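Crash report, auto-generated. Payload:
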Amino acid sequence: MLDSSILVLGAGGFHLNIGDMLASLIIFVVLLALLKKFAWGPLMGIMIEREQHIANEIDTAEKNRSEAERLAKEAQEQIKATRQDAQEIIENAKQTAKSQEQSIITAARQEAERIKESARQEIEQEKDKAIQALQDQVASLSVRIASKVIEKELSEKDQEKLINEYIKEVGEER
Amino acid sequence: MEHEAPLYENAFGISWLDFNLSNVFMLLITAIIVFILGVVASRNLQRKPKGLQNFMEWVVDFVKGIIGSNMDWKTGKQFLPLGLTLLTFIFVANILGVITMVSVNHDLWWKSPTSDPGITLSLAAMVIILTNYYGVKMNGVKEYGKGFFKPLPFLFPFKIIEEFANTLTLGLRLFGNIYAGEILLGLLAGMITSGVGGAIGGFLPMMAWQGFSLFIGAIQAFIFTMLTMVYMAHKLSHDH
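Recovered output after restart:
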């Protein structure tokens, strides 16, 4: 009923062959199935996988960036804190040095004062001793001078008189 | 163009089952080439593509673009293998006849399978049937049936005609373009083989027409795929 040479197009004459139609459909469908399994499927799979990979990478990069930013901020803060600490330490050291200097000076001054005092005392003592010695010598000297003076001044008469007096005194006592 | 087709009539003793063996042969060759191309391209898949994989991914993206311009990607995703296979299969089929034409004993064996109206029409019919199938599958029988009475009920006969007209135009457009190209190529080839003068005179037009045929083959493959997706979107949309 379906004559294969119904459709005649142009001079060449085309036969609408049912067999060709069936063949083309079958071949196309088989090709479609095979390609879907062996070519398009894997190809689309890798494309989707790449998309996901890129999305993941973008996420990771974003995460890393924020992490790095956070760390940088932290480091900045730490540097600031360290700088402050250093400043404080220097300040403290300066203060300590100043107070130590003050105390050393005070101690030195006191020591000097003490040494001066002891020196003065020693001088005083020496002076006293010297005076004492001088006084002793003056006494003996004066006695010696006096005896010399007395020796010279005492005449024979006086001497006799003195002797007599002493004798008399002694006699009377007996 | 005195070539005859290598007919094989009444196959398997069935009176209406005739084969044009060259068509079957060329269809098989096309399918094998496309399959090898696809398998080679996707054989060593890498995340960082190079060479043929890169090209095939470009093709995939191209078909994605075709589908995406007609429907949203969520519904269009399932038609990607169909679109890809249509595009590559028809393109390779078109190109085969441009490369060369071989006839043995006045039987034309090597030609574009798409220069046969039966094949293009069956492909077109398959596409139209698929659009109707997906129309029923995605929208339900009721919604699908209503589609024939929109926007106005009296347009129903035209809607029915439209389906057949679509099939005819889709198939015959492809056939006509490729067949015309082959006829001219055949004429030029005959001119070149006719003598020295013909060879000199026919050389440049032959080259130009071959280049143009390549272009036509690519364009027609694109148009076929594009229209497939247009018809598909038309059937799938709810508001038409």
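Post-recovery validation: Helices of chain B lie at 21-41, 52-68, 73-76, 80-99, 117-146, 156-194, 196-236.
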